[in-house]
Write a structure and sequence with these properties.
The complex is a heterodimer of chains A (126) and B (511). By secondary structure, chain A is an all-alpha fold. Chain A is built from three helices and no strands. Chain B has 511 residues and is an all-alpha fold. Chain B has one domain. Chain B is 70% helix and 3% strand. In chain B, the strands form two sheets. A three-stranded antiparallel β-sheet of chain B has the order 4-3-5, with no helix packed on it. In chain B, helix 1 runs antiparallel to helix 2. The chains are: A mainly alpha (126), B mainly alpha (511). At the A-B interface, helix 3 of A face helix 1 of B.
Chain lengths: 126, 511
Amino acid sequence: MRGAPAVSAYLPILVLGLVSFGFAVFSVVAGALTGPKRYNRARLAAYECGIEPTPQPAGGGRFPVKYYLTAMLFIVFDIEIVFLYPWAVTFDRLALFGLIEMVLFIATVLVAYAYVWRRGGLEWDN
Amino acid sequence: MGVQLPFPTPQIEYSLLLPVLVILGAAVVSVLIEAVAAESLRRTLQPLLAFGSLAIALAGCVGLWDQRQVVAQGALVVDGPTVILQGTLLILAVLGALLMMESRVDPAGDPFAARASTIPGSADERGFGARRQTEVWPLFLFAVGGMLMFPAANDLLTAFIALEVFSLPLYLLTGMARRRRLLSQEAALKYFVLGAFSSAVFLFGSALIYAATGSLDFAGIADAVSADPTSGLLLSAGVALLLAGMLFKVGAAPFHQWSPDVYQGAPTALTAFMSAATKVAAFGALLRVMFVALGGAAWDWQPAVAVIAGLSMLVGAITAVVQSDIKRVLAYSSVAHAGFILTGVLAASPKGLSGSLVYLVAYGFVTLAAFGLLTVVRSPAGEATDVQQWAGLAKKSPVTASVFSLLLLTMAGLPLTSGFTAKFAAWSAAWGGWQTGVVVIGAVSSTIAAAFYLRIIVSMWFSEGDDAVVVALPGLGTRTVVGVGVASAVVFGVAPQLLLGLVDGVGVFLR
């Protein structure tokens, strides 16, 4: 059977899909069956998702952008880490070239950080 | 630890990437200046940095003239077309920056809102009043850097990144007009939403092409295409989506819907740069994709491109006739020009490449100058962009009216102007490639286009004007921009061999 290894290579993905689906179904069903049901105002609030979309002030108004700033800041550092990992694994083989490129990359990311810091992006109550 | 595979150290040819690296590096420094320097210092430092880096990049670009090399591990190509496109983009960027510096025509200051995030008409906005912002400079430099990369990109992923690097700053800059804030913000939103959508379409097309050919770099795609010329459904769908994404950026019909609104709403100084430079960058990339990666499948994409070229020319010319805002007239005329340039692309031959390049160079300078000139004709509310307000301009300022007439006639393709040289180069290539039908449509639509150019000229010279409209005396920057536009229109028209010889010298795309 020459076809067998090709099939088994994809089997874990299928299993992973089934497990994820099973977990999702289990969570929803178990939550509905076992959770306490107390209805109050807090249940309708946006859960750690930033601003309340309604009611809007007249003319659209202004709304705070701090949540979006947090998200963007997260991406800045997240992307940095994503590139640092593969470098950490191969940095001995990338030698001096890799070191120079990574220093340049980190410096660039730090510029973004400096900009956010100086422009008050790290101050929550502002 | 697993098996250690042989791992060659990557090579980056820094010297060959000099123009791109200098501009992107300057953009990063520019962000740093925004972060640490005081406002008064920023106002001096930022333009200095922009012009300095553009000058160094331009010098570097000239030094690359004879280079023909695939660089940065196959991500970018430095060849003749790259160098001439990058050179054109850098000169256009210098001119665009001069327009951005202009602070004499508007009594309130430069063309940009003091703080774009304030609500139009609010007390908050009035509080910032005559202050100036300098954040346009890093955004501008990032846009230029992305544009330099786009026509040099040698694989679809690099192309996509370059596309985003120059598109995102342009979305923001569009929303920063000092006057008519609501229109400007609306334009920015429309541009962003449609632009993001078209980027997604571009990416989807890339994914399908990868699925069909197993490669993202242009040479690999070309090999897969020529190995199996009877292209499958997957490849055709991928090419169609990729084309749609790129044709959006060049503003060809039916993907042009955004351009009149964006051109109208954006600060005119930026519209000038954007309309010229985006077209150069996007057509450069489109040419490379079509000629290098998909050259073997030219028979498949030519009919589609022919239809789009014809449609762009007709839609652009006919719709421009009924516009009442002069910025929208120029926007629709740029849709028609996109069609004219596509005629050169359609030829799928070295002659088509040089014809398109000639058109891009000629069109870029003239369009930039035409938009630059729009800023000087003003009413108390700001720029007078209604066609009616331009009536009788010749009595107020014969120079402005003459120059604008010349620029319009150049766009119409009058002989002895660079517009004629450009149209001749693009159409003779298409004619030689047996695309006669498209050339005929081109001739018809340029006749229609000539009608509305002439309508504006007649109204400027032979009508009575509105006394509230005045012609402001621009600073040296705007005058330089208009001067360069006029000079290019005349010189490349009277002595077309200068431009044709320059472009013929660059050769073809390197594979």
